[in-house]
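Hey team,

Filing this mostly as a record. A colleague (T.K.) asked me to run one chain through the structure pipeline before their review meeting, and I want the input and output archived in the tracker in case anyone asks later how it was produced. No errors, nothing strange. Just documentation.

Input sequence:
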Amino acid sequence: MKKFSVIITTKNRRKLLENAIQSVLSQTVNDVECIVVDDASEDGTQEFYENDSRIVYVRIDAVDSRGGNYARNQGIARAMGEFVSFLDDDDVWTPDKLQKQFALYEKHPGSVIFCGRTFKKTSGENVQSLTVIPPKKFSGDLSRLIRTTYVTSTSCLFFPRYLLEQVGNFDERLTFWQEYELCIRLAQVAEFYFVAEPLVVCLDDVGGSPRVSNRVLNWKENTTYIRDKHKDLYRDLTFMENWAYHATLMKDAFRRHQRAGKKLQTLYYGFLRLVVEYIPSRILHLF
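Output structure:
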């Protein structure tokens, strides 16, 4: 059995994928297994990586393609590690990510570990960076808080594999908020702790190919599905917790429609965000 299994899912991102792979192989810990799940790429990814001895290559043909969460679950099925982490193909890790997360895990065994991240937005020759470190309240028992806000992203997660066996893998019906929904389940059985450093760099090429996160066609259906799936947990929220949840919805809806270039919907969700999220949280500090 390996110590660490890292699962990278990819689709038509061969040039970006190499950076993600290198960031895994450059980790300062030993015994790292790098699994690349190729979700029916047509850009030469298979020819380039199928026989790459550095990685465990898993190919999903077009006829069997069922989305990103299906691909992640295929990677989990092949994983041999005691600990599991995930990396999007357009993100990279700092070399000490696994080392620092494992060190924190040893202080809090049985917990979910995540970390800060840096968003790097590139538009032509212009590069902007924003580092986000989780607030202190995102630590410990998050079984209630996790339902009201977006705590972390897939590329930041680190936890023992047995937690997935306990709560189940990624929900394959989801195309949005998959890590949010998984974390809801994880937070009911484990505490969360984070390394207060940016150990993940999220790359965003504004002029590049559209990201899945930019598409909004079934965003509402996904969030409604999550709410229905965990209706008992949401029903238990207080008035202010429910307000915080809807504030998170409005913030995410505004950003997704803005990125998708949907001007009318951006104005609509921008107004709702102002009323539901921005004024209550930034000005009145209600949550």
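Quick notes for T.K.: The chain has a mean pLDDT of 93. The beta strands are 2-10, 32-39, 56-60, 81-88, 91-93, 112-123, 126-132, 158-160, 192-205.
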